[in-house]
Amino acid sequence: MSTTIELTDGGAPASAGPPQDGGEIRCGDLVRIFATDGVEVQALQGLTLSVDPGEIVAVVGASGSGKSTLLTILSGLDTPTGGSAVVAGTDLLTMGHAERVRYQRSTVGFVWQQTSRNLLPYLTASENVRLPLELANTLPRRERRRRVEELLELLEVGHVAGRRPGQMSGGEQQRTAIAVAVANSPRVLLADEPTGELDEATSAEVLEALRGVNRETGVTTLIVTHDPTVSEHVARTVQIRDGRTSTETLRRTETDEHGRARHVSEEFAVLDRVGRLQLPQDFVHALDLRDRVRLALEPDHVSVWSATPGSSAEPSPVADPVEIPTEEDR
Ligand SMILES: Nc1ncnc2c1ncn2[C@@H]1O[C@H](COP(=O)(O)OP(=O)(O)OP(=O)(O)O)[C@@H](O)[C@H]1O
C-alpha cells in the first residue's frame, strides 16, 4: 500500500490537552505566536517535549528556532498562545498571579546567559547564594551558612566565596549562578545558553557542573543552547527546528568484549502523539523532497519517496497504489 502526504509548514493544530505521561516537564502541541506591527511570527509551532523527573536534557537548535521562547514560557515569564505546558505539576497556561510568583520563587531555578542577570554585582559569591535563602525564609537561620558553604563546594567555587562577580572569571560566575539557582532546592533547573559568553574549555566545565548538580541533587535539568558540543555532556539532546522538536540524540556508554567503555550516540526522529515527524534536513535535500512525498507501509518500516513528476526515485513494486472505489463499484 502506498499513500501521498504533503510536506506542510507545520501549522499548529488545536490543543489536544496535556500529554498523558509522568514527565516533570510536559509540553504538548505548544504554540507561541508573536504579533508585531500586524505581522505574525510563529515562534513555537506545536512543540512536544517530555522530560522525566531527575533527567538532564539539552535543547539545541539554530538561531530563531524557538529555544529562548520555550525557556521563557517554562520559566513562567511568558504565556503560550496554545497547547499545554505542565512543569512539576503546575499548569503554566492557567496559573494565576500568586501561583506564578510561587512557581518562580521555589519550583524552578534559572541560569541565564548574561552573568549580570544571574548575580548581583555588589554582593560576594556567598551573599549571592544566601540571598534566595533569606527571601524564601524556609531554612532555619543557623543552617543557611552551612547550606551556602555546601553549595559553593559542590560547584567547586569555595575559593571565591568572598569575591564579588567582577573579581571572578566567567566560569566561576556561572558556577556560582548555578549555586544560586538551586539554593532553594527547586524541582526544575532551567539554563538558557549558560555557556554563551564562555570559551570552549570553560563551557565544558560549566556543563559538567550542571551535570554534577543534576546527579547530586536530582534536580530535573533543561539546558537550552546552540552549542552542539553539549550533547557530549548529557544523555539526551533534543533538536528544535522551526518551533518544533525534530530529532533526538541519545548517548549511552557501552562496555565492549575487552571491558573497555565506549560512548555510543544514536539519532532518532521525534514522532509526536498524532504521528507527525520532521524528516532531517539533509535527507530532504539529498532526495530533493518538496511539497509532498509518497509513503509506503512495509512489514517493519515505512518508506518515503519523492512524489515529484520525473523523479528517478519511484516506489518499489511492493508499494501498490491505494485503490479508491468508484461510484459503479459501490
Ligand atoms: N517578543 C517577540 N516578538 C516578535 N517576535 C519574536 C519575539 N521573540 C521571539 N520572536 C521570534 O520568534 C522566533 C524564535 O525566537 P527565539 O528567540 O525563541 O529563537 P532562539 O532559537 O532562541 O534564537 P537565538 O539562538 O538566536 O536566541 C524568531 O523568529 C524571533 O524573531
From TrEMBL:
<dbReference type="InterPro" id="IPR015854">
    <property type="entry name" value="ABC_transpr_LolD-like"/>
</dbReference>
<feature type="region of interest" description="Disordered">
    <location>
        <begin position="305"/>
        <end position="330"/>
    </location>
</feature>
<feature type="compositionally biased region" description="Polar residues">
    <location>
        <begin position="305"/>
        <end position="314"/>
    </location>
</feature>
<keyword id="KW-0813">Transport</keyword>
<keyword id="KW-0067">ATP-binding</keyword>
<feature type="region of interest" description="Disordered">
    <location>
        <begin position="1"/>
        <end position="22"/>
    </location>
</feature>
<dbReference type="Pfam" id="PF00005">
    <property type="entry name" value="ABC_tran"/>
</dbReference>
<dbReference type="InterPro" id="IPR003593">
    <property type="entry name" value="AAA+_ATPase"/>
</dbReference>
<keyword id="KW-0547">Nucleotide-binding</keyword>
<dbReference type="InterPro" id="IPR027417">
    <property type="entry name" value="P-loop_NTPase"/>
</dbReference>
<feature type="domain" description="ABC transporter">
    <location>
        <begin position="25"/>
        <end position="267"/>
    </location>
</feature>
<dbReference type="InterPro" id="IPR017911">
    <property type="entry name" value="MacB-like_ATP-bd"/>
</dbReference>
<dbReference type="InterPro" id="IPR003439">
    <property type="entry name" value="ABC_transporter-like_ATP-bd"/>
</dbReference>
<protein>
    <submittedName>
        <fullName>ABC transporter ATP-binding protein</fullName>
    </submittedName>
</protein>
<dbReference type="GO" id="GO:0005524">
    <property type="term" value="F:ATP binding"/>
</dbReference>
